[in-house]
Amino acid sequence: MPFYPLLLRLSSALVPLTIALTTYLYFYPFFHNCYFPIPPESTHHVFDNCTFDDHVLANHYANRQAAPFRLLALGDPQLEGDTSLPSAPKYHFPGLNQLGQWLRSGRPFLVLDGLQSGLHDVVNDILRGLEYTRKQIDLFGNDYYLAHQYRALHWHTAPTHVTVLGDLLGSQWIGDEEFESRSIRFWHRVFKGASLVPKGLLKEYAAPTFVRAEWQTGDDESKYYREKTVEVLGASPGWANRIINVVGNHDIGYAGDIDENRISRFEKQFGPVNGDIHFTLPLQQCNLSHPPLFPPVLRLIVLNTMNLDSPAFEAKLQQRTYKFINSLIDTSSPVGDDTTATILLTHIPLHKEQGTCVDSPLFTYFPHDEGGGIKEQNMISKDMSKQAILHGVFGKNLDPFAPAGGMGRAGIILTGHDHEGCDVYHYGFKNNTEWYASKWDGKEAKEARADGDVPGIREVTVRSMMGEFGGHAGLISAWFDLEKGKWEIEVGGCDLGVQHWWWAVHVTDFIAVIIWIVTAITWFVEVKMDPQFLQKMKKWIKEKIEEEQERMGGRVRGMMDMKMDMGGYNPGVRRKPHGSL
């Protein structure tokens, strides 16, 4: 029976299926319409009359429709490892090892028990081995599922910056060797081709320095900007391939168990737990009719909120975080200065009332004999959210007599931790002490944003990029609106889908390749080759089988003759039976 026609029909049916599935998977950002938010047309002319010093800046601002700052935000990859694997099978089979003793005992019931115990050991170890292997394959596939998201989105959307918002790894309890192993997977498998932010770019403590900037004509006595860690936005294209890593609880723990070793090994592999950098727009190289008083600045802050709340296991490490926040306040632009916007990257979200997001406020603590520190928390405490973040970093204040009327600094907060994700607006009313958080698209938040006398700020908790949560990614665009004299920040998103789709496509591709190979071999044998050659081959095989059968038959007859010669059984001789007379 020829198999080639059947295999040809099967492989022909698989061709369009595999092409369609693979194309969809590898170009999913295109099919899902995943793009960074685009600035309005009114802002496209800002860089029309610019003369840049080098081609790098010219290329960065060449596309007028693209925002000059595009941040790809990924949340909680949580790379697992040995702690998630079941115990490896040992294949000792103690029941079978004792079976020999029971056989020699001559007691059937022991032999039966031995067989039952031995089979039980074999089945258990085989099942354990299968589960162990399945989990190893699952970890391997999960790494490449996450890598596929990063690679596809990075190629399709062309971000200028990339951040991972904490929980890079799956457990803070792992040893140094396993930590290094997962770090290698992070850099060489999941984010292959990406690199760590060079040391010194994200500085933890910055002293305020005032430098005169003669970037426009006229009187320059009042034209100053703070030169901390400053870069011209777009001057270094290397940022597109750098990962700005934020520390999470599964990386170093919560306040109750963070120690110096965990922070040191994290910073060695992934960068500082605290730091900030200022990106300036090169408007001094543009011919503008009404340039802003100060060069627009976009401030990027990485903040460790893991030990912001108390009690902490090591007070020294907590003071380090407090000192960094104070340095942020000291080096911040004046409140009400809309030419500067702040993007805060941190892991634990700010406080919200129950029901606002999926996670609710939660604090648990270690026993007193273990230090009594924070063991787990879903959000920053209410007081710390207000004092350290809203009041401190962003300068928001509900006192109507506060500077700039309490409106504070512009910006956005990007967090992780809550795997389901959330998008809220924090706001408060003057002459009040309470801050509220409502869904960004909700009625209350819209009314608060419409009121120009209500301080507030947006917080986006980026949904996890893990397969269980659909492989989500945040797409954040920022641009300076020259007419309004302030920064605009918009947020989009993109979802790959659960990891089962990734597996299904690649398994289908693998099966299709095998079938195509078998089809090609079958075509070569059944169609391409000379049919007479096949007949000769069959005849030769048949002759060899007959020769072997004849040879085996001759050996059997020879053995029978030998037995007869040695006095063995001879059917021609009748023997007298033994018996008494």
| N-C termini distance | 71 Å
Q: How is the quaternary structure best described?
A: single chain
Q: Profile the largest sheet.
A: 8 strands, mixed
Shape: elongated
Q: By helix and strand content, what is the structural category?
A: alpha/beta
Radius of gyration (CA) equals 36 Å
Biggest sheet, spatial arrangement of strands: 6-8-9-10-13-16-14-15
Total number of domains? 2
Share in helix = 25-40%
Beta-strand fraction estimate: 15-25%
DSSP strand tally: 18
Low-confidence stretches: 206-227
Structural description of this entry:
α1 runs antiparallel to α13 (499-528). β9 (297-302), α10 (315-330) and β10 form a beta-alpha-beta unit. The longest helix is centred in the first third of the chain and has 50 residues, at 108-157. The chain folds into two domains: 32-85 and 133-497, no CATH class; 530-565. The two termini are 71 Å apart. By secondary structure, the chain is α/β, with parallel strands linked by helices. The chain has helices spanning 4-26, 28-31, 55-60, 94-97, 99-105, 108-157, 176-190, 249-252, 260-270, 315-330, 382-393, 443-450, 499-528, 531-565; strands at residues 69-74, 161-165, 195-196, 210-212, 224-226, 230-232, 242-246, 275-280, 297-302, 340-345, 363-365, 374-377, 410-415, 422-428, 435-439, 456-461, 472-481, 486-495. The strands form four sheets. An eight-stranded mixed sheet has the order 6-8-9-10-13-16-14-15, covered by helices on one side. Strands 3-7-2-1-17-18 form a six-stranded mixed sheet, with helices on one face. It has a two-stranded antiparallel sheet with strand order 4-5. The chain is elongated and about 125 Å long.
